[in-house]
Amino acid sequence: MTDATQSSARPAGNSAFVGYLRTHMREYGILFALIAIMAFFQVATGGILLRPVNVTNLVLQNSYIIIMAVGMLLVIVAGHIDLSVGSVMGFIGALSAVLMVQFGLPFPVAAIVCLLVGAAIGAIQGYWIAYWKIPSFIVTLAGMLVFKGLMMVLLKGQSIGPFPNEFRLIASGFIPDIAAIEGLHLLSLLLGIAAAVVLVYLSLRSRAKEAKHGTPDEPYAFFAGRNVLIAGAVVALVYLLATSRGLPNVLIIMAVLIAGYSFVAKQTTIGRRIYAVGGNQKAAKLSGINSERLTFLVFANMGMLAALAGLVFAARLNMATPKAGETFELDVIAAVFIGGASMAGGVGTIVGAVIGAFIMGVMNNGMSLMGIGIDWQQMIKGLVLLAAVIFDVYNKNKAA
Amino acid sequence: MTSILEMRGITKSFPGVNALENVNLKVEAGEIHALVGENGAGKSTLMKVLSGVYPSGDYEGEILFEGEERHFHSISDSEKCGIVIIHQELALVPLLSIAENIFLGNERASNGVIDWSETYRRTEELLKRVSLKESPRTRVTHLGLGKQQLVEIAKALSKEVKLLILDEPTSSLNETDSQALLKLLVELRSKGISSILISHKLNEISQVADRITVLRDGHTVSTLDCHTQQISEADIVRDMVGRSLKDRFPHGDPKIGEVMFEVRNWTAHHPIHSERKVVDDVSFNVRAGEVVGIAGLMGAGRTELAMSLFGKSYGDRISGEVLLNGQPVDTSSVPRAIANRICYATEDRKTYGLVLDQPIRDNVPLANLNGIANGLVVDNQKEREVAERYRKLMAIKSSGIGQKTVNLSGGNQQKVVLSKWLYAEPEVLILDEPTRGIDVGAKYEIYSIINELAAQGKAIVLISSEMPELLGTCDRIYVMNAGRFVGELPIAEASQEKIMSMILKTGKAA
Ligand SMILES: Nc1ncnc2c1ncn2[C@@H]1O[C@H](COP(=O)(O)OP(=O)(O)OP(=O)(O)O)[C@@H](O)[C@H]1O
Ligand SMILES: [Mg+2]
């Protein structure tokens, strides 16, 4: 029987290279799309896009979308959707304002209360979805209306602010520096270089492990190219930020979230189970996976991240407004799909979703800089979303 | 005789695999042409090339149908020429009626308004041709698989088929239904309709085929003519696997111990029609080291019994007792059943067995993720080792453990499902049609694995519709009919006739 295996899988020679590209088109495609879009706007805005101040702005502007995209990716991989995140985010912003500004609660206490309330909101929605099998679309549509309403109740139609200073710093502050060099934030640069080194080291290590078990899937040229590109991008981004005011605090929060959730999604049994449930719930259940509990947890987590995004957003505006979070759920969902997740569940990566969010963010920012009206911006973003998903489906059909 | 179809030099590759290399196939007008080969030999792929699932340009080589070169770009192209394929997995819409399914996409209508009386009249004619006694208004979901298969053929006939392709049509049918289907093929042949029949059941092939083409590893090995020579099953097997197989079943040397797994008065009701008992007061036991078979017709309730035992995965109002080594155990949820080392390998690999979008590597450890993890963190290296081990052990034909299971051949998907449960290290393993769609050589390997598990003192329950398989591997056989156990036979006393008579004596199947 062993001889059957050996004779069977004859790799089709040098087409392995092409084959790899074809099966992994999506992952590389999105990266190239981001680079192309950035290059386009860099030229179209006459170099403003990548000016340090604007890059700092880009990060700050998109932080809350990225924070929520991380949670939404898990929701969508699990085969669901959460339409309520925009409203929850707004509601938590309002709650934080009431707690801190009106009740004078200290910022850490208020923040923890807000995160717990967010998790509880997610848990309640998740309960109906997981254990009562009510479609997530409906539960979270209801949630979207309910929390929008609750937010207006809390705010009584007005904006509340300003926030205490230390709270504002989470969204608009920068990390401190160790040495004073004119025009360069040293600690930021060092941290960025360290991050790049760690990334490269980790991927070298996992490739070496793979190589011990025969040839890795990914051709060497791709591996090297991907690593140089990613490390280069990290260092370039950090350098730009360092020549301005250094790394924003939110960037640190985001980096920790992205790394942490990527690890959970890829390297833990919980992550594996979420992908399995999204891929085939029946098979997952018959393999002993408690799909209800996972669904519940995924929504509770989403609620918590929406709350975090709400805090960051409120801190950035330095007030809670009744408009906060409006239609943000659409940007978040779009980012996740642009990032390669599948509506059917079971497919998608955290990094993909983050890149998707950056694509949306760069387009927003670039088009605003070019003075393109909000009407055109909407249309163009819609078309990009559609194009990304068409590209997905096209690839899938070709591979089949 | 003139040939209706000629495929010349067909080559088709997927990333990492050459599925077909320079394959030739010639089908004469008015013959039943069998296509055989091991799992992953390329049979289904060749038929997908022929029917336009892989459009012209996606493969090399040429297709001549009725003497003309054809370039099919889609299934509807090939259907227009009279080539109809019935896939390994049926493609009927469960909640539509028979008539609606038959004319789906081809509705009897004028100006977009469906002419129902014409539809039903035509359907009745077609059902008569395939000898199916059902109302055209019956919903397909209420039909057994055998009848659904006939509906598929009726649907093909509605399209004025000239060449009918059946990909493992009998793999999920019982004897009676299979025979009915084969008879129908012979009848269609007499009307001048040719067919290509893919099957791993060699007895059926020698029964009806005029000629046989054997594929091995994507190459044409031989074409045997059943009229000019005497072809034995052994000849076919030799060409398929490249060597001769002496026995169909390995010789086990059973060392049977104490009763290990026992079920008492197990009853389960239908999940929707909750007054109906699908499993009715069933009691049985399995000893350590014993392989116990459950025989029965399709719809006897065997899968329902197994799934209701396995974490109440099927049915409503379930009652009864499960004992492991004399102690009552809790199997009320799948995780609890697995924790007690009671496992169930499904018969329906696509719906209940695999996460199709994921590779072999992720599917194999799914029921025992803790086995490849330290705490919560997955150990990738261990995961790869495990997947590699089972790929070798089960000879899963693939480009590597990274191949998505959706792209594996049917039989190899089945092997992944079995691997998953072997890795869960069961003490009691319930196997539901474990060799469905598996080639002769690989079947032998699976029987060997069953024997090995038994030799390690595990208790095995084997549900199968293939009587020879039950008779060849089990130590004891229970017979189930209409939700009840109607007999028990030690292997020494069991025979196909005895089992059938037990079923018939207790009335018609549900
Ligand atoms: N879409 C695909 N992508 C990659 N490989 C594929 C794809 N489809 C089929 N293959 C490979 O092509 C080979 C032939 O598969 P095919 O389904 O034709 O086998 P088969 O002879 O029908 O086997 P079985 O008897 O198990 O049904 C297998 O090795 C399979 O893994
Ligand atoms: Mg096949």
Automatic annotation (TrEMBL), chain A:
GO terms for cellular component: plasma membrane. It is found in: Cell membrane. GO terms for molecular function: transmembrane transporter activity. The keyword Transcription does not apply. It comes from the Bacteria. The chain crosses the membrane at residues 30-50, 62-78, 85-103, 109-130, 137-158, 178-202, 223-241, 247-264, 294-315, 335-360. It holds the Pfam family BPD_transp_2. Keywords: Cell inner membrane, Cell membrane, Membrane, Sugar transport, Transmembrane, Transmembrane helix, Transport. Part of the binding-protein-dependent transport system for D-xylose. Probably responsible for the translocation of the substrate across the membrane. This is Xylose transport system permease protein XylH.
UniProtKB/TrEMBL annotation, chain B:
It is found in: Cell membrane. The keyword Repeat applies. Residues 5-242, 261-507 form the ABC transporter domain. Coiled coil: none annotated. CDD domains: ABC_Carb_Monos_I, ABC_Carb_Monos_II. GO terms for molecular function: ATP binding; ATP hydrolysis activity. Pfam families: ABC_tran (PF00005). Keywords: ATP-binding, Cell membrane, Membrane, Nucleotide-binding, Repeat, Sugar transport, Translocase, Transport. It is a peripheral membrane protein. One of its GO terms (cellular component) is plasma membrane. It comes from the Bacteria. InterPro entries: AAA+_ATPase, ABC_carbohydrate_import_ATPase, ABC_transporter-like_ATP-bd, ABC_transporter-like_CS, L-arabinose_ABC_transporter, P-loop_NTPase. Belongs to the ABC transporter superfamily. This is Multiple monosaccharide ABC transporter ATP-binding protein. It comes from Pelagibacterium luteolum.
